[in-house]
Amino acid sequence: MTAAGQSRSSARDTEATTPPAKRARRSRGKNDRQAVALIPDQPYRAALIELIAERWTMVWQAVPAALAGDDIEGVHDVRVASRRLRAAMDVAVPCFPDDWYRRLHQTAKSITKSLGEVRDRDVLLASLAKERAASTRLERPGLDRIIQRIEAERRQSRVEMEAYLSQLLEGDLPAESRRRFGRIPPDADPVATNDGSGSDPRRILEAGR
């Protein structure tokens, strides 16, 4: 089995043996925020704008910690945030024009993928460290060689990950995501009443951006 295959297998095994309570705490991440307060009679498209805006914000907030590399959970937090973003964008495909939505949707998927190799190796290295601590003197040289190989793979994966995330931050994606999914202005509140100005809030939301 290749090192990458070992990494993915170890990641799955570690997750499977992690107590449910610990998994729940970890899955919340450091950058989670209170869920968007959706309104019962809010149009479907308007609700998705709110939800996707919130989840893009969580991704952009989590990225700097992943780039800093001071805490391996920084990478995990971005993966969790990007998965939640992808889930929201997956169900919203019919609601938005394909000419601009596709790019943001694909980027959400690419963010998750770009962190996978680093995260898998982080999990594998943590598992190997525990195994080494419990190993005999004769077993350690072999484990050390495996650890060195995985560490080298992780360094290369981080170089690629950092280049991709930095490119995103320096490009137009953050501004584009805010422009397309920014907070709905008060005068477009779906439960607001028409103030007589001639702009029906429900019509504003249904008309598109």
Task: Characterise this structure.
- Helix 1 packs across helix 5 (98-133) and helix 3 packs antiparallel against helix 7.
- It is elongated, with a radius of gyration of 21 Å.
- The longest helix is centred in the middle third of the chain and has 36 residues, at 98-133.
- Mean pLDDT is 78; it is low at 14-32 and 184-209.
- It is mainly α and 209 residues long.
- It has a single domain, classed as Alpha solenoid (CHAD domain), CATH 1.40.20.
- It contains eight helices and no strands.
What is the 3D shape? Answer: elongated
**Describe the biggest sheet?**
none
CATH architecture, by name, is Alpha solenoid
Helix content: over 70%
Essential attributes:
209 residues; mainly alpha; CHAD domain; elongated; disordered C terminus
Question: How do the helices and strands line up, and which of them pair or pack?
Answer:
Elements: H1 3-17, H2 20-28, H3 44-68, H4 73-91, H5 98-133, H6 140-170, H7 173-181, H8 201-207
Helix pairs in contact: 1-5, 3-4, 3-6, 3-7, 4-5, 5-6
Describe this structure in a few short sentences.
This protein has 209 residues and is mostly helical.
